[in-house]
Amino acid sequence: MAQKEVLGTPPEGIHPTYPYKVVLLGSTSVGKSSLAYRYVKNDFKESLPTVGCSFFTQMLNMEVATVKLEIWDTAGQEKYQSVCHLYYRGAHAALLVYDITNKETLNRAKLWLRDLEKEFLPDEIVIALVGNKVDLAAEREVATEEGEEFARTRGLLFMETSAKSNYQVNDIFMAIARELLQREQEKARAPSPHGRSTVTLGESRVRTGCCRL
Ligand SMILES: Nc1nc2c(ncn2[C@@H]2O[C@H](COP(=O)(O)OP(=O)(O)OP(=O)(O)O)[C@@H](O)[C@H]2O)c(=O)[nH]1
């Protein structure tokens, strides 16, 4: 899992650990739990129903630091959403997951993005759009280019994945970890409250949600 990073060399003997809260958001059955399970346990189960929220931890030994990803998996069912919006408070990164065989789930991911944009300023959170179930190519309803283009216009990381066939699952979490570390380094170099961000969520916004955890 560990990969060499080229983010600069920390002072000798210092290898900090950065804990980051990562939330999985998306409609029911898009494969949020399966992605977390594949990533953390390197396994796939046909049935992993989520009731409320669950939680996984994964450590990543990068060259300049250890990254501890605390992965929060929220149930996509509408009935849980009034509760689960609490779970993305204080998040450092979010995976907006849709199912490439179900166009409606991409529309729903766009609504989650709108919620995140109300809750976070652009440089406060790393957001990745994730099109899951690419192993079901024959049933595809969302073209790769459509997800890619939406992500590009909104400044999101983008990847298509398959939890089932283990396609790009490590890669998307690694891309998030790298982006989080890079921002950490940028903050250290330029300690302005809103330093340069490589992810742009749109125009500058005032956070309208209530207090953060
Ligand atoms: N073919 C295929 N099926 C998948 C993939 N990922 C998940 N599934 C299946 O899709 C269904 C839903 O997966 P879950 O991981 O439970 O989805 P979820 O988004 O966590 O669902 P909720 O907990 O209801 O929000 C299950 O039957 C999984 O086996 C994938 O990459 N490919």
Structure description:
The N terminus and C terminus are likely disordered. The protein is an alpha/beta fold and 213 residues long. It has a single domain, classed as 3-Layer(aba) Sandwich (Rossmann fold). A six-stranded mixed β-sheet has the order 2-3-1-4-5-6, sandwiched between helices. The chain is globular and about 50 Å long. The protein starts with 16 loop residues before the first strand and ends in a 24-residue tail after the last helix. It is 31% helix and 22% strand. Helix 3 links the parallel strand 4 and strand 5. It contains five helices and six strands; from the N terminus they run E-H-E-E-H-E-H-E-H-E-H. Guanosine-5'-triphosphate binds next to helix 1. Guanosine-5'-triphosphate (GTP) binds next to helix 1. Keywords: Cell projection, Endosome, GTP-binding, Hydrolase, Lipoprotein, Magnesium, Membrane, Metal-binding, Nucleotide-binding, Phosphoprotein, Prenylation, Protein transport, Transport. One of its GO terms (biological process) is protein transport. It is a lipid-anchor. It catalyses: GTP + H2O = GDP + phosphate + H(+). It comes from Amazona collaria (yellow-billed parrot).
